[in-house]
Amino acid sequence: MTNQLNQRILAHFQESAELKIQAANELAVPISQAVELMFLALSNGNKILACGNGGSAADCQHFAAELVGRFERERLPLPAMALTTDTSIMTAVANDYSFQEVFSKQVQAFGQSGDILLAISTSGNSVSVVNAINAALERDMRIVAFTGKGGGEIKKLLSEADVHICVPHDRTARIQEVHLLTIHCICDGIDAALFGGDADD
Fold first, then answer.
1. Helix axes 2-43, 172-195, angle to 10 degrees
2. CA 195 remoteness from chain centre
3. For the chain, what is the largest distance between any 2 Cα atoms, rounded to a whole number of angstroms?
């Protein structure tokens, strides 16, 4: 049993490492585009709203925490908000309307022209996230979408003004692992755009 379990664990690590090497070559350009889009928005006094479900909700909160707090360098707080944290808003909207509108209502309330929506869905088909993207586009916001599995419905909604970071894999756990690394790359890129160089420079 122990040997079989060890083999399963090693297989997870190997698959994750191989995907990250593959994804690095495919995703470096869109990740750098996301950094530029977000940095420009933040420099212009705009903010970033983030939404997703389940593990993707946790990723939204992680991202917002890194910007409002810090990533690896001391700096002023940057305006980012996860739309996954206010249980009163979410349960009110889910109860009075539907869960599919829990993010779109908040985008309509808080989003402004020039803001960014970070939309995370491993399948690309989450209806609540799709609705948030539509609400953001109506408000002249730009979209940075994290997906996998080919991009799903979200891929169809994006224009050249938006950024699509689609992990080339079908397994949700692996997609989420690359999404987390992507968040760290974006946070580091924003810090580098603010300060240049590395944290030790």
1. 40
2. 23
3. 57
Task: Tell me if 81 sits within 8 A of 48, measured CB to CB.
Answer: yes
- 62 labelled ligand-binding: yes
Identify any residues that bridge with 148 across adjacent strands, giving them in sequence order.
Answer: 167
CA distance 182 to 19: 13
- One-character DSSP codes across 137-164: HHTT-EEEEEEETT-HHHHHH--TTSEE
Does the annotation place 66 within a ligand binding site? Answer: yes
- Span 163-189, pLDDT tens digits: 999 999 999 999 999 999 999 999 999
* Residue listed under structure tokens 């889910």: 94
53 is in an annotated binding site: yes
Is 3 annotated to bind ligand?
A: no
Whole-model pTM over 0.70:
yes
Tokens of 119: 């939309």
Count CB atoms within 10 A of the CB of residue 155: 14
Question: How far is the C-alpha of 157 from the C-alpha of 2, rounded, in Å?
Answer: 47
Please indicate if the annotation marks 182 as binding a ligand: no
pLDDT in tens, 122-168: 999 999 999 999 999 999 999 999 999 999 999 999 999 999 999 99
